[in-house]
Design brief:
By secondary structure, the chain is mainly α. It has one domain. It is built from 4 helices and no strands.
């Protein structure tokens, strides 16, 4: 039984979004930025905690793959939209394929919606 009552899919989405935050925040971590570094660390811990909550009800392989997929798509998107990383057709296609995999894992996980 989970320590709090939350939809495991919602917990997984929150975990993934927090992963996007801490992964994107790595650009600003360092001893000269203690508050930012602390915020990234807190986001990381919160992301893992929500992932743990999700895995109490969802298959671990599905939850982990979706968590990393949300993080990968989100971090790549932040990189392109915020940090000026290249936005090429092939990069967009790869992101679309990751999203398709995430949707497929959700649809065929066998876990309740």
């Amino acid at each position: 039984m989970s320590p709090i009552a939350i939809n495991p899919w919602l917990a997984l989405v929150i975990a993934g979004l927090l992963e996007v935050g801490w992964a994107s925040g790595f650009k600003f971590v360092g001893p000269q930025r203690p508050v930012t570094s602390l915020a990234v660390g807190v986001a990381m811990l919160a992301s893992f905690w929500f992932l743990w909550l999700a895995t109490q009800k969802l298959p671990i392989g599905t939850a982990y793959a979706i968590w990393t997929g949300i993080g990968a798509v989100g971090a790549a998107s932040v990189g392109m939209l915020v940090y000026g990383e290249p936005t090429t057709t092939i990069r967009i296609l790869c992101i679309v394929l990751i999203v398709a995999g995430i949707v497929g894992l959700k649809l065929f996980s066998g876990a309740p919606a």
